[in-house]
Specification:
7-stranded mixed beta sheet, Quinone Oxidoreductase, Chain A, domain 1, zinc, binds zinc ion, ADH-like_C, 2 domains, 6-stranded parallel beta sheet
Length: 364
């Protein structure tokens, strides 16, 4: 942040739960940037907890230099807006990993705002539009972002269930669209957790021939079938791995062990197929190149998704009834919620509720 320019609206104070160098979150307040003509202010009702939040607050991706409010599966109501979005006040919206992008570069014009060199992640980042200011995430009562990145929540979807779609949902939906999942294709999902349980549902709703749940234990065998998987592969069972060899056109890798056997995992991909990495490892991967040459397998990554993809994802979820399985907890108990996630216990996503969510429920 060497070229950081502060930009604060002293008349507004937002309060959240900040990481201050340890995973223990503390109540902490900040002044957001002044509401620009293209910005919206959201009163947050819900925020999911994603693996990226945990990596950030535990320092897995590097130490945090200053208090940081994470959270990038944000749902709430627009309560204030700049001139361009006055007509959206009162709208229920969701915000994922992006708070802003330039809108003008090659990547933005192609709908890939997540690749824009001037994009701003929703937390642990600065705005790059020249006004200055730092981004803060959704473990808070409010947030200000560019209105383009606040996506309308479909009418038939609960606000709590919408939250995980903003990261876990888009992260798994976008690569399936990009790599043309659908009839005639076999899709595998490695890791049946917050991301993977949505990946299975998308692939089933896209009518893929086979949807294969791949997990290192049998504990999720039955649940994966309920989610729409047609097959289950235990990656620790050599018989399972042999039977499934070279059978999947697209595999989404949502999590992996530090000692993952990449040759064995790549052997599940069909000739000319793709292994898509969705989780950022904390150390470099060690992979042999045999499958890349001899079977023309590719290994690619995918990062969340742009504005249009996010809107398409929410519409698809609404139409095909794709919903995360969630456990709700009060945001005031965020340390207990984070601990629950770190222990790998949620089935399959924790969504925290703020006072705004509680007030909305009691007024109904
Ligand atoms: Zn995430
Ligand atoms: Zn751009």
């Amino acid at each position: 942040m060497s070229d950081f320019k502060p930009c604060e609206d002293q008349s507004a104070t937002f309060t959240g739960w900040a990481s201050t160098g340890t995973p223990h979150l503390k109540k902490w307040s900040y002044h957001p940037r002044p509401l620009g003509p293209k910005d919206v202010e959201i009163e947050i009702s819900h925020c999911g907890i994603c693996g990226s939040d945990i990596h950030t607050i535990t320092g897995g991706w590097g130490a945090l230099p200053e208090p940081e409010i994470v959270g990038h599966e944000i749902v709430g109501k627009i309560v204030a807006a700049g001139a361009e979005f006055q007509n959206r006040i009162g709208e229920h919206v969701g915000v994922g990993g992006l708070a802003d992008a330039c809108g003008d570069c090659k990547d933005c014009k192609a709908g890939n705002e997540q690749l824009c060199s001037k994009k701003s992640f929703i937390f642990n980042d600065k705005f790059k539009d020249g006004r200055g200011g730092k981004t803060y995430g959704g473990f808070a009562d409010r947030v200000r972002v560019r209105g383009d990145f606040a996506h309308k929540i479909p009418e038939n979807m609960s606000l709590a269930e919408a939250a995980p779609l903003l990261c876990a949902g888009i992260t798994t939906f976008a690569p399936l669209i990009q790599h043309q999942a659908g009839p005639g294709k076999s899709v595998g999902i490695i890791g049946i957790g917050g991301l993977g349980h949505l990946g299975i549902q998308w692939a089933a709703a896209m009518k893929c021939d086979e949807v294969v749940a791949i997990s290192s234990s049998n504990s999720k065998r039955e649940e994966s079938k309920k989610l729409g998987a047609t097959k289950f592969v235990n990656s620790k069972n050599p018989e399972d791995m042999k039977a499934a060899a070279q059978s999947m056109d697209i595999i989404l890798c949502t999590s992996f062990a530090k000692d993952a056997d990449w040759d064995a995992l790549l052997n599940l991909v069909a000739n000319n197929g793709k292994m898509v990495i969705l989780a950022m490892p904390e150390a470099p991967l060690s992979i042999g190149a045999g499958a890349f040459i001899h079977r023309q397998v590719s290994m690619v990554g995918s990062l969340i998704g742009g504005k249009k993809m996010s809107r398409d994802m929410l519409d698809f979820a609404a139409k095909h009834n794709v919903r995360p399985w969630i456990e709700t907890m009060p945001m005031s108990d965020c340390n207990a919620a984070v601990k629950h996630v770190m222990e790998g216990r949620p089935r399959y996503r924790v969504v925290m509720e703020t006072g705004a969510a509680v007030r909305a429920q009691t007024s109904n």
